[in-house]
């Protein structure tokens, strides 16, 4: 699976501070939740982007290196509401206990780039934006646990699934941001 | 508008002369915490450059108007940007550090330690940013270099200026914190490159084996280098006694600390070798010998004249690492609670063995940060 990004920024050959100056400029005009792939050759760009995203409130997803080019993936901060509308929730610990249960399907609705760098091994990836068109891939006979980073996107996904007739849907709160169990990366 | 810049050479002089200076370090907090430009009368402010992209208003009142401000970053690009912004904001006393911490890490300063018997001279090359020390012994038209760094042109040019021919290049041990320039200098000048064979078992090139009791003559005067086999930091670590006056201890003994035995992954095996060297072999030497180590860790270890040197007798009195009676306590000190290992130390070792040959830019990246070869 390729790591998908909504936008590409070419900062190859540019020295510090330009990769960050350009990233900051680009990300300002993007939609919340969009994923940017920043290509850079400056080795220092990784530590700097990690620190900058942290201070600016964006989400650093990870970096892969291909033939001397560093590809950094960053997700623009989104205003994730605290309010959860879907009534049925489980916490991380309950998810962990039920993961081995054959009747449980774990659906990860984060962006594919987020999923690529870190996900729970049993999870199936369908980003929130693709849920409508791919809803048929989900087995309606199972207990569907929906996870994202903080419980906000998964809340929306749960509502959508309930509308479409799924009756055993659980939002995992808070989700990956606090997950301490086993994870996998597509790149390792 | 043209901004003002300061070279690492000029900043090194200010650091050594303990001048007052305000250092605005615009690298990330982690990088700053890990390693910075040290001097007694420098004051510091660390704000990452990416937090200043929208303007410098927020830090203006934290900056002095009455003393010089030096802006430092990793490579010299971001500091130019911030210096320009400060310049626009009306600060006239701001200088961008040319080449940033990378240039700072590489800067080498030759300092004369002393004259030797029969007209010879001994120089210490202080790599102030990383705390590495290397040496050149000069006598009657010939020179020997000990523990040279990667910036080989500095030594080669220095020898040229002195009108001497480099005949021998030594490494006291296989370094883990910096890339040795020894092999390159030897190839370039036709000098012999010496390594302790026990550290060189995996090297991919030819070398002259340093054996205990070896004597090498530089020039035709009486300057001899005795290889004094002293395992501890690495199993092959070797010390030299130069001109019966100077003890080059490599990474075994420093001014205010001792060598860590774990960088080749064998702390437990080598602890007692290290103790044996420090507490027996060195103890048997004359107290009058002047110790010249391969590193310093803190600016306090520098003498007024910029050299790093102290009598062995004084170290036996004052260096904590030489004054631990109890063997178990000693073992604990050098194997537990060790500081973090030097940046990329495995890759640096492999480079020094000739197993890998990274591009220059990569070598600079590998060497970033302090040397971290000591325990205190």
Description:
The complex is a heterodimer of chains A (188) and B (376). With 188 residues, chain A is of the alpha/beta class. Chain A folds into 2 domains: 7-76, Translation Initiation Factor IF3 (2-Layer Sandwich); 89-178, Oxidized Rhodanese, domain 1 (3-Layer(aba) Sandwich). Chain A has helices at 18-28, 45-56, 92-98, 112-117, 131-134, 152-163; strands at 7-11, 35-40, 59-66, 69-75, 89-91, 104-108, 124-125, 143-147, 169-173. Chain A has a 5-stranded parallel beta sheet. In chain A, strand 6 (104-108), helix 4 and strand 7 (124-125) form a beta-alpha-beta unit. The longest helix of chain A has 12 residues, at 45-56. The radius of gyration of chain A is 17 Å and the shape is elongated. Chain A starts with 6 loop residues before the first strand and ends in a 15-residue tail after the last strand. The model of chain A has no long low-confidence stretch (mean pLDDT 92). Helix content of chain B is 27%, strand content 24%. The model of chain B has no long low-confidence stretch (mean pLDDT 91). Chain B is built from 12 helices and 20 strands. In chain B, the strands form 4 sheets. Chain B has a 7-stranded mixed beta sheet with strand order 6-7-8-9-10-11-12. Chain B has 2 domains: 4-103, Oxidized Rhodanese, domain 1 (3-Layer(aba) Sandwich); 108-375, Ribonuclease Z/Hydroxyacylglutathione hydrolase-like (Metallo-beta-lactamase, Chain A). With 376 residues, chain B is α/β, with parallel strands linked by helices. The radius of gyration of chain B is 21 Å and the shape is globular. Chains A and B meet through helix 1 and helix 2 of A and helix 2 and helix 4 of B.
Keywords summarizing the entry:
heterodimer; A: 188 residues; Translation Initiation Factor IF3; Oxidized Rhodanese, domain 1; 5-stranded parallel beta sheet; B: 376 residues; alpha/beta; Metallo-beta-lactamase, Chain A; 2 domains; 12 helices
């Amino acid at each position: 699976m390729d790591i998908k990004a909504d936008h590409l920024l070419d900062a190859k050959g540019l020295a510090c501070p330009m990769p960050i100056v350009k990233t900051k400029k680009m990300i300002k005009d993007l939609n919340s939740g969009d994923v940017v792939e920043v290509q850079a050759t400056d080795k220092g760009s990784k530590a700097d982007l990690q620190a900058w995203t942290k201070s600016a409130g964006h989400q650093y997803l990870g970096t892969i290196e291909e033939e001397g080019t560093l590809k950094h993936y960053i997700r623009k901060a989104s205003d994730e509401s605290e309010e959860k509308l879907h009534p049925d929730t489980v916490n991380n610990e309950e998810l962990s206990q039920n993961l081995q249960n054959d009747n449980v399907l774990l659906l990860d609705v984060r962006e594919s780039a987020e999923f690529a760098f870190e996900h729970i091994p049993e999870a199936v990836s369908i980003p929130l934006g693709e849920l409508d068109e791919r809803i048929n891939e989900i087995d309606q006979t199972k207990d569907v646990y929906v996870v994202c980073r903080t419980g906000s996107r998964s809340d929306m996904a749960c509502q959508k699934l309930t509308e479409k007739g799924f009756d055993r849907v659980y939002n995992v709160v808070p989700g990956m941001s606090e997950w301490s169990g086993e994870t996998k990366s597509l790149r390792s | 508008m043209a901004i003002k810049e300061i070279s690492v050479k000029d900043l090194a002089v200010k650091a050594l002369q303990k001048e007052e200076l305000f250092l605005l370090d615009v690298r990330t907090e982690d990088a700053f915490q890990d390693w910075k430009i040290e001097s007694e009368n420098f004051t510091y402010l660390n704000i990452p450059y990416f937090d200043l992209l929208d303007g410098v208003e927020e830090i203006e009142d934290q900056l002095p108007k009455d003393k010089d401000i030096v802006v430092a970053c990793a490579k010299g690009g971001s500091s130019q940007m911030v210096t320009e912004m400060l310049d626009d904001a009306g600060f006239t006393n701001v200088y961008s550090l040319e080449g940033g911490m990378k240039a700072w890490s590489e800067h080498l300063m030759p300092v004369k330690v002393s004259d030797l018997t029969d007209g010879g001279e001994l120089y210490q090359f202080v790599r102030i940013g990383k705390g590495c020390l290397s040496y050149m012994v000069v006598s009657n038209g010939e020179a020997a270099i000990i523990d040279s760094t990667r910036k080989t042109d500095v030594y080669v040019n220095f020898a040229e200026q002195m009108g001497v021919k480099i005949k021998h290049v030594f490494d006291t041990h296989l370094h883990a914190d910096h890339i040795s320039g020894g092999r390159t200098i030897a190839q370039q000048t036709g000098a012999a490159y010496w390594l302790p064979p026990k550290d060189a078992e995996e090297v991919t090139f030819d070398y002259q084996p340093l054996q205990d009791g070896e004597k090498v003559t530089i020039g035709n005067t009486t300057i001899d280098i005795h290889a004094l086999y002293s395992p501890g930091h690495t199993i092959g670590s070797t010390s030299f006694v130069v001109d019966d006056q100077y003890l080059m201890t490599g990474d075994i003994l420093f001014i205010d600390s001792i060598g860590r035995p774990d960088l080749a992954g064998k702390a437990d095996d080598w602890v007692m070798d290290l103790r044996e060297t420090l507490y027996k072999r060195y103890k048997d030497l004359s107290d009058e010998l002047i110790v010249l180590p391969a590193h310093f860790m803190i600016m306090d270890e520098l003498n007024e004249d910029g050299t790093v040197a102290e009598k062995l007798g004084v170290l036996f009195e004052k260096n904590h690492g030489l004054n631990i009676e109890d063997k178990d306590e000693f073992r604990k000190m050098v194997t537990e609670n060790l500081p973090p290992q030097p940046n990329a130390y495995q890759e640096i070792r492999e480079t020094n063995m000739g197993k890998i040959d990274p591009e220059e830019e990569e070598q600079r990246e590998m060497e970033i940060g302090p040397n971290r070869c000591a325990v205190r």
